[in-house]
Amino acid sequence: MPTPPPTEFNPLAGLVAVVFPGAGHLVLGQPRRALLAAVGVMGLFFFGLLIGGIDAIDSKDDRVWFFAQALVGPPTFIVDQIHQKQFKAYDLDTNLLRSGDPGEHRVIEDNRPVWEPLTYDEIEAGMGPPNEPGLGRLNEIAMLSIVLAGMLNLIIFLDALMPNPKHMPKPKSAGGRS
Amino acid sequence: MIPLAYTPFIDALAVHEYWYLLIVPMSIFLAIGYKAVRCSDLSKFIREVIVFTIQVLGGLLLLAIAFTLVIVVLLPMIAPIPG
Fold first, then answer.
1. Which residues of B touch A141 (CB under 8 A)?
2. N or C: which end of chain B has fewer CB within 10 A?
3. CA A141 → CA A41, A49, A52, A66, B15, distances in Å?
4. Which of A49, A138, A166 is closest, CB to CB, to B16?
5. What is the total count of domains within chain B?
6. Is residue B51 part of a domain?
7. Residue B16 and residue A136: Cβ atoms within 8 Å?
8. Left (φ > 0), alpha (ψ -120 to 50) or beta: where does A10 sit?
């Protein structure tokens, strides 16, 4: 059995790979691999958001899922922050931050977002919470898609940190042979 | 039915009847990302992505068949429902 090729440790590529999926391979001089890796990870990420909406990423209500989703990197944290700050509000009875139910709308009272019940006419006029959360199996599939994106990004990160020498671009020879 | 006020990436998409079809684009994206770092020769990339996607979908189909057999055939034999 042949000995596997030695792997080089590249902390810079690993660090850059944490910032955005595939960016580590750009540092390694593999732009095509970088683009394909980004398409795979961000494709799964945006597909999850398309299916489940912004509710597919929720660090408060779906904490365990969020741990794996966080492996995608900054995109997950940015979407989660937008979700928590722009789409959730406090329940007036329980004082808990939550997503809105049909028949409620989000208002700011004393610099604090709260859910306020709507009248029948307001509901008829199309008013409601700022987003419609995913339910049941679709919500699970959406969260799973983003979890898969995170786990895939972990593989891509490890490949950037310890690149396979076989995948590295060959240095151009000084003799001018093409 | 998709409501008129549907906003992509904000609201959930109402595709409850076709949930099983969602595995296809997920498998394709997974194959693209995985083969981007595992394919040694990128000239064979598309072929490897297609093969990997078929392997994932085939594996899931076999699992679905196996679990269906367990629930529909095996389980009623082991523990029949009285009445």
1. 19, 22, 26
2. C
3. 16, 10, 8, 14, 11
4. A138
5. 1
6. yes
7. yes
8. beta
- Confidence grade of residue B52 (pLDDT, cut at 50, 70, 90): very high
Q: Select from B29, B47, B53, B56 the residue whose CB has the most chain A CBs within 10 Å, as the one to mutate to test that interface.
A: B29
With bands split at pLDDT 50, 70 and 90, how would you rate the model's confidence at A176?
very low
**Where on the phi/psi map is residue A110: left (φ > 0), alpha (ψ -120 to 50), or beta?**
left
Residue range(s) defining the domain that contains residue B65: 20-78
Q: Note whether A135 contacts B12, CB cutoff 8 Å.
A: yes
Q: What is the ipTM of this complex?
A: 0.88
B33: closest CA of chain A, how far (Å): 4
Hey, what are A31's tokens?
């732009």
pTM: 0.88
A43·B32 Cβ contact <8 A: yes
